[in-house]
Every structure is written in structure tokens, then in C-alpha cells.
Amino acid sequence: MSLYECVVIARQDIATTQVETLTDDLTNVLIGLGGQVSKREYWGLRNIAYRMKKNRKGHYVLLNIDAPSAAVKEMERQMSLNEDILRFQTVRVEELEEGPSAVMQSKNQRDERPRREDGDRPRREGGYGREGYGRGPRSTEGAEA
């Protein structure tokens, strides 16, 4: 059997529970045709780079799949018929990644950073920016009164 990674983008106006049942349905299609899903990651409701079918956001899900190509083709056919799925991409890989994906790692690193207080923010010296540009301090030398 071959190894695949599949990322699915579902519509923004469906609930998280509906996304989970949608993912369960796709998993059941794969299992029914002799495959298995080793990892499922819900990446959350994220912004999309450009508008897709009048949606600016989407629910992202990653699936790590070990299945024959016929099972993956059937899963893709089911996804193309489903109106709740905006886009999907399935890629064949040499080996499946263990542990959390890069998206989940960056999300965890963001959560672990300490919060800054207003007084902790570093201030720039020199007023409003570069001299002579913008609203910085003005020189009155040579000006006639």
C-alpha cells in the first residue's frame, strides 16, 4: 500500500462537529476499501489566501493515509461531490511524518510564549522615525520669522 498526506479545506459556516463527522466519513471510505488513517489533525478555522466559493476562511484537516490507490481515488471522488468541501489536496509521500505537523508545532510555540505587558514593549529612540521625513522634530534654523 502507498502512503499519502491529504489536506482538506471545509466551508467556514459549518460547525466543528460537522467537520469531524465529515472526516469520519472519509476515514470510513478508506477503511472500507482496505486502507487506514494513521493520523488526523484538525488545524482549526484559518484564513484562506484568496476567496473560494465566497468563503474567506475554512476548516483545515490533515489526514495521514496508508491505503491502496483505488481507495484514495474513491475518497477524492466523494470529496469532489461534497458541497461542504472547498478544496482538497492529496500527495503521495515516501514516509509519514510522526508527531505533530509543522502547523501544529508553530501553533504550540505561539501558545508557550510569555505575554508582554504594556510597559515591557521596547521603545525606539529619536521620536517619530528618520530625520527629515514624516512628522519628526523640525529644525527652525534658517527660517525667517
From TrEMBL:
GO cellular component, one term: cytosolic small ribosomal subunit
NCBIfam families attached to this UniProt entry: S6
Name recorded for this polypeptide: 30S ribosomal protein S6
InterPro entries documented for this protein: Ribosomal_bS6, Ribosomal_bS6_sf, Ribosomal_S6_plastid/chlpt, Transl_elong_EF1B/ribsomal_bS6
Annotated SUPFAM superfamilies: Ribosomal protein S6 (SSF54995)
Compositionally biased spans, kind Basic and acidic residues: 108-128
Keyword terms, alphabetized: Ribonucleoprotein, Ribosomal protein
Family: Belongs to the bacterial ribosomal protein bS6 family.
GO molecular function, one term: small ribosomal subunit rRNA binding
Biological process terms in GO annotation: translation
Classification via CDD domains: bS6
This protein's encoding gene: rpsF_7
Region (Disordered): 97-145
